[in-house]
Design brief:
This is Choloylglycine hydrolase family protein. By secondary structure, the protein is an alpha+beta fold. The protein is about 15% helix and about 30% strand. It has an 8-stranded antiparallel sheet with strand order 13-12-11-8-7-6-3-20. A 6-stranded antiparallel sheet has the order 14-1-2-17-18-19, with helices on one face. It has a two-stranded antiparallel ribbon with strand order 4-5.
């Protein structure tokens, strides 16, 4: 279970951020896949990656990432889509078949923009192929943003990939994206101001204080609640004019959909929590990363040195709280 947000800042920097909410330990860390990388899919097909990219991933045979941005400023994240995703069965000898968790590698490695994805998506089919880590096929859908300012969601319907414009620039988990858009109509009265005072039979009722316009804003951790909460916050947060302030703003939004360990337990007894938060600046191809067990924010850049390496680079992340001692 995850939440993702996209944002165009006043200084024209574009961001895509997400929480990675999951039960099994993913142990994701910042990794850089270089340009001209030769990658082999789970089903044995070879792909040449024209573009390098930075994201959060892990070595599972080859490296895989769950979110990131490439050198052309195309950013993408995969989110769980339980009960909704529909995949075809693998067909021997057919080109362009990918396991769902591999799709992001193909997009970031070969596409320069959402327009490219639209033009090329028919080349790919997502098939029922279990991941090496989870031993099951991951039900996923995807959010993408690029330097044009566009944001889209990609979901499967009738086993084919569908691209849906995302004007809200938010995504969560099941149900499908169009259901979430419809559900927002239930929250039209939400606003950052105080509710007006009223009289009932001559009795004066005054708001308790600032913020009463947010009464009814859902506070739970279900996907619909997180989608509404992120949408409200993203549409009302105070604009900032520097990259640093925008990074802070967007992590404050992610704070509100971050799931602490232990407060959300699945039916099988496993704990679903936010294992990390990440944010990418599409304009500068910069990655910001914060693992659950640290208050430290890590920053990494997609440099030419990393792009021109022959192998994937895993960037080290320190252990511990990350607090600065003052005395």
């Amino acid at each position: 279970m995850c939440t993702s947000i996209s944002y165009i800042a006043e200084n024209q920097h574009i961001f895509l951020g997400r929480t990675m909410d999951f039960g099994p330990e993913l142990k994701g860390r910042p990794v850089v896949t270089p340009r001209n990388y030769e990658w082999t899919s789970q089903l044995g097909e070879h792909f040449h990656f024209d573009y390098g990219f930075i994201g959060i991933g892990r070595k599972l045979g080859d490296y895989l990432v769950a979110d990131g941005v490439n050198e052309k400023g195309l950013a993408m994240a995969e989110l769980y889509f339980a009960g909704e995703a529909e995949y075809a069965q693998p067909m021997s000898g057919k080109a362009g078949q990918l396991a769902p968790h591999e799709f992001i590698m193909w997009v970031l490695g070969k596409m320069a923009s959402i327009a490219d994805v639209r033009a090329s998506i028919d080349q790919i089919s997502l098939v029922d192929a279990p991941s090496a880590l989870l031993k099951v096929t991951s039900p996923l859908h995807f959010i993408l943003s690029d330097l044009s300012g566009a944001t889209v969601v990609i979901e499967t319907k009738d086993q084919s990939l569908q691209i849906i414009d995302d004007p809200i620039k938010v995504m969560a988990n099941s149900p499908d994206f169009n259901w979430h858009l419809t559900n927002l109509r239930n929250y039209l009265p939400l606003n950052p101001h105080s509710a007006p005072n009223r009289e009932i039979n001559g009795y004066k009722l005054n708001a308790f204080g600032p913020g009463s316009g947010t009464f009814g804003l859902p506070g739970g951790y279900t996907s619909p609640e997180r989608f509404v909460r992120a949408s409200y916050l993203l549409s009302n947060i105070e604009a900032a004019d520097t990259t640093e302030k925008n990074v802070v703003n967007l992590f404050r939004i992610l704070d509100n959909v971050t799931i602490p360990r232990g407060v959300k337990i699945k039916d099988d007894g496993s704990v679903d929590y936010t294992q990390y938060r990440s944010l990418v600046d599409l304009t500068t191809q910069t990655l910001y990363f914060q693992p659950y067990d640290s208050l430290q924010l890590y920053e990494a850049h997609l440099t030419e040195d990393l792009l021109n390496k022959s192998e994937v680079t895993e960037l080290p992340v320190g252990d511990g709280l990350g607090a600065t001692e003052l005395n």
